Amino acid sequence: MIPAEHQNFVDSLAEILIHDAQYVGLAAGSSWIDGQMDHFSDVDLVIVHKADFLSLSERKSLAGSAGNLLAGFTGEHVGEPRLLICLYDDPLLHVDLKFVSLSDMHTRVEDPVIIWERDEAITAVLQNSGAEFPHPDYQWIEDRFWVWIHYAAAKIGRGELFETLTFISFMQQNVLGPLALIKNGYLPKGVRKLEMHLPESDLLVMQSTLARYDRSSCLNALYRIVDYYKTLREAVMPDTVERNLPAERRVMLYLKETDSVQK
After folding, report:
1. Which residues, other chains included, contact 33 with Cβ-Cβ below 8 Å and sequence gap of 6+?
2. What are the residues whose beta carbons fall under 8 Å from the beta carbon of 193, sequence distance 6 or more?
3. CATH 3.30.460.10 occupies which residues in the chain?
4. Which superfamily does 138-260 belong to?
5. DSSP H helical segments within 106-137, as ranges?
6. Nearest to 95 by CA among 105, 81, 82, 85
7. How many of the other CB atoms lie within 10 Å of CB of 111?
């Protein structure tokens, strides 16, 4: 069920695009696709244009015409400069506007819901190409995992607990979350909606990787991260992934040494 305030915004934007010949269509992605939107959801929209590129001023102009725009900025920090991340008022909505050319629609991570299109142009592209969501490189993770664990153990040993807490979040976002989602048949979207997707057994283990600003708590979380990673490694990674067992053994010894030293 799409909330009324979300639907009204999208319908209003579609009406603007219909009357501007430079635009080919409007599509919605993410939770709009599976109908799992609620009052707290962002709106993820793809605005398809004829030109190969739209200037930032053109994109901001359209964003400003779509509603009471409080703030907006580009998405370089998430690797997507074509994205305008917007906050609107009346109603208060977070809306991501991704501007793409029609040819760019051939490369995508999902098949969006078409809200409006001109001459079925988007439909033709979707029918002649496929979506491909990026999956983690398992060997890349294994090659780095034990270096990361040594890094965190050293920071705990020195007493840098803020750095350790940031590291724990990094591991949840980039390693444990994606692997746990894959294990349970979902796309590896970091830690998004783990509470909705993971069974209780996995969710409890994920919770055990959280830590307080406390040396003992951080050490315990690090042990739990290692344990859960090894479980997920066996569950989802193929035998072709080379395990770095010498690094694993040496780093685990270092972790135990760090644990035994009173700071």
Report:
1. 110, 111, 112, 113
2. none
3. 4-128
4. Nucleotidyltransferases  domain 2 (1.20.120.330)
5. 121-127
6. 85
7. 15
The C-alpha angle 187, 190, 191, rounded to 5 degrees, equals 105
The sign of the dihedral angle between the CA atoms of 19, 24, 28, 33 is: positive
Top-level class of domain 4-128: alpha beta
Q: Which two tokens stand for residue 245?
A: 């067992």
Delimiting residues of CATH 1.20.120.330 domain(s) in the chain? 138-260
- List the Cα angle 121/123/129 in 5-degree steps: 105
- Number of other residues whose CB lies within 10 A of the CB of residue 25: 25
Residue 239, C-beta contacts closer than 8 angstroms, at least 6 positions apart: none
pTM: predicted TM-score of the whole model, two decimal places: 0.89
Mind listing the pLDDT tens digit of every residue in the chain (263 residues)? 899 999 999 999 999 999 999 999 999 998 899 888 899 999 999 999 999 999 999 999 999 999 999 999 999 998 899 999 999 999 999 999 999 999 999 999 999 999 999 999 999 999 999 999 999 999 999 999 999 999 999 999 999 999 999 999 999 999 999 999 999 999 999 888 899 999 999 999 999 999 999 999 999 999 999 999 999 999 999 999 999 999 999 999 999 999 887 65
Assess contact for 156 and 219: CB atoms under 8 A: yes
Do residues 162 and 213 lie in contact, with contact meaning Cβ atoms separated by under 8 Å?
A: yes
Helix axes 161-171 and 138-158, enclosed angle (nearest 10)? 160
